[in-house]
Structures are given as structure tokens and as C-alpha cells.
């Protein structure tokens, strides 16, 4: 299994090396912050989406892909033991299918784990 190094860009723009749990916490906290931000994801019918909205959505998909890749690559045995693999697989298929329809899988940083197969992106549902 390849060793993966995770980096997160902190509030001052500095790249910080971090563990997988910290990277996951940072990404999920950031995604939740974006989802809660009315300026990013407006809920009013008369509100418009911000410039760069597509980039933000692609970034969210990228972070979610990294998180799921880590779960599959590092914790899949535990997921199976907890009998959660059908749920994880369903989440993954939805992420890949919906993300593919939005063109989110063209990003060069898609796979932080070299052992993760990009052929998964070509799977049919």
C-alpha cells in the first residue's frame, strides 16, 4: 500500500502537511461551511449563484472523492466488518455518476492514492 501525504491550505494560504484524519476533518468542515453559506448556495428563488460556483462544486466533489478513496484504500475491511460497504458503495456510485454528469472528473488531482484505479470512473451503473 502506497504512503499518501495529505496537504491542506490553511486560512493564510500556507500548505500544511496533515494526517488523513485531519485532512478529512478539514475537507468535510470546509464543505459544510460552503453548504451553509447563503452566498455560495442561495436558497431564495431570486438569488443568483456566485461567480466561480462551478469551480466550488468541482472542488467539493474532489474532496469527497479523496475522502471516499481513503476509506476504500485504508479502512475497507472495517467497513465490511461493520456491514456498511453497501452504503459506502452506493454513496460512491452516486458521487461518480452525478460528478461525471457535471464534468467533475477532469481534475488532475483526482486520485491522491496511486493505487486507486481510475477505471472506477468508467464504470457503468
User: Ranges with pLDDT <50 over ≥5 residues?
Assistant: 111-125
The end-to-end distance, rounded to whole angstroms, is 28 Å
Q: Would you tell me the structural class of the helices and strands? A: mainly alpha
What kind of sheet is the major sheet? 2 strands, antiparallel
CATH superfamily membership? MOB kinase activator
Report the CATH architecture.
Up-down Bundle
Strand content: 5-15%
Rg is 16 Å
The CATH topology, please? Butyryl-CoA Dehydrogenase, subunit A, domain 3
Q: Using DSSP, what is the number of strands? A: 2
Whole-number count of domains: 1
**Whole-number mean pLDDT:** 83
Helix-strand topology string: EEHHH
The CATH class assignment is Mainly Alpha
Figure out the total of helices.
3
Keywords: Metal-binding, Zinc
Protein name: MOB kinase activator 2-like
Binding site for Zn(2+): 70, 75
InterPro entries: MOB_kinase_act_fam (IPR005301), MOB_kinase_act_sf (IPR036703)
Short description:
With 125 residues, the chain is mostly helical.
Structure description:
Keywords: Metal-binding, Zinc. Zn(2+) binds at residues 70, 75. The protein has 125 residues and is mainly alpha-helical. The chain has one domain (6-122): Up-down Bundle (Butyryl-CoA Dehydrogenase, subunit A, domain 3), CATH 1.20.140.30. The protein has three helices and two strands, in the order ββααα. It has a two-stranded antiparallel ribbon. It is globular and about 45 Å long. Mean pLDDT is 83; it is low at 111-125.
Amino acid at each position: 500500500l502506497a504512503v499518501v501525504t495529505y496537504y491542506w491550505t490553511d486560512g493564510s494560504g500556507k500548505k500544511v502537511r496533515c494526517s488523513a484524519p485531519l485532512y478529512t476533518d478539514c475537507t468535510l468542515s470546509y464543505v459544510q461551511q460552503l453548504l451553509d453559506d447563503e452566498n455560495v448556495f442561495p436558497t431564495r428563488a431570486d438569488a443568483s449563484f456566485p461567480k466561480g460556483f462551478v469551480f466550488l462544486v468541482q472542488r467539493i466533489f474532489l474532496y469527497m472523492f479523496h475522502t471516499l478513496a481513503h476509506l476504500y484504500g485504508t479502512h475497507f475491511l472495517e467497513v465490511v466488518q461493520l456491514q456498511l460497504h453497501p452504503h459506502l458503495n452506493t454513496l460512491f456510485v452516486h458521487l461518480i455518476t452525478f460528478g461525471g454528469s457535471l464534468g467533475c472528473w477532469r481534475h488532475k488531482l483526482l486520485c491522491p492514492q496511486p493505487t486507486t484505479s481510475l477505471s472506477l470512473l468508467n464504470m457503468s451503473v
